[in-house]
């Protein structure tokens, strides 16, 4: 079974959108196997966004991600990397389709509410910054 990693960004928490966002994954039947509420350390944020460190938006992105608590999750389902990105919508909210999380609730590309891994390789890299393997819980979903 495939897994992916997501972050509900500080504005999602501050806007009271945790339930609204998680509902969309749960109602699809996607399983939560890891979940934490935390304030990211600078070291964690730098590791997470290391691939973007030379981009012009890097500093703004880092400060935003450190500006308040986030919720980090590991989700599990068949083809979940692609499925979650489909539910989340395009990185730029202007291009995100109606009905997606960003298409309905986000306004700017920095404050685009949620991060989702774009590959299994990045799932492994990103999730390991926030979760140990023994913190991910295996169980079955009920009817
Ligand atoms: P995320 O999925 O967290 O991964 C990298 C983040 O960089 C992305 O979401 C956006 O929040 C941010 N980002 C990407 N492109 C831009 C851009 N052109 N300007 C500002 N922020 C950006």
UniProtKB/TrEMBL annotation:
It catalyses: a ribonucleoside 5'-diphosphate + ATP = a ribonucleoside 5'-triphosphate + ADP; a 2'-deoxyribonucleoside 5'-diphosphate + ATP = a 2'-deoxyribonucleoside 5'-triphosphate + ADP. Its EC number is 2.7.4.6. It is an enzyme of class 2 (transferase). It is found in: Cytoplasm. The keyword ATP-binding applies. SMART domains: NDK (SM00562). Residues 1-138 form the Nucleoside diphosphate kinase-like domain. It comes from the Bacteria. It holds the Pfam family NDK. InterPro entries: NDK-like_dom, NDK-like_dom_sf, Nucleoside_diP_kinase, Nucleoside_diP_kinase_AS. Transmembrane segments: none annotated. Its cofactor is Mg(2+). Keywords: ATP-binding, Cytoplasm, Kinase, Magnesium, Metal-binding, Nucleotide metabolism, Nucleotide-binding, Phosphoprotein, Transferase. GO terms for biological process: CTP biosynthetic process; GTP biosynthetic process; UTP biosynthetic process. The active site is at 115 (pros-phosphohistidine intermediate). The keyword Flavoprotein does not apply. ATP binds at residues 9, 57, 85, 91, 102, 112. GO terms for molecular function: ATP binding; metal ion binding; nucleoside diphosphate kinase activity. SUPFAM superfamilies: Nucleoside diphosphate kinase, NDK. GO terms for cellular component: cytoplasm. Major role in the synthesis of nucleoside triphosphates other than ATP. The ATP gamma phosphate is transferred to the NDP beta phosphate via a ping-pong mechanism, using a phosphorylated active-site intermediate. This is Nucleoside diphosphate kinase. It comes from Fervidobacterium thailandense.
């Amino acid at each position: 079974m495939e897994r992916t990693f997501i972050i509900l960004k500080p504005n999602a928490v501050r806007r009271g959108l945790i339930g609204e966002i998680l509902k969309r994954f749960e109602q699809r039947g996607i399983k939560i196997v890891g979940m934490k509420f935390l304030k990211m350390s600078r070291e964690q944020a730098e590791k997470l966004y290391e691939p973007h460190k030379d981009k012009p938006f890097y500093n703004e992105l880092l400060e935003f991600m450190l500006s308040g608590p986030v919720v980090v999750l590991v989700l599990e389902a068949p083809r979940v990397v692609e499925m979650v990105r489909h539910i989340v919508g395009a990185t730029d909210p202007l291009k995100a389709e109606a009905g997606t999380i960003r298409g309905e609730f986000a306004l700017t590309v920095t404050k685009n509410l949620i991060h989702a891994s774009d590959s299994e390789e990045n799932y492994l890299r990103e999730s390991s910054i926030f979760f140990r393997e023994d913190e991910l819980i295996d169980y079955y979903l009920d009817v």
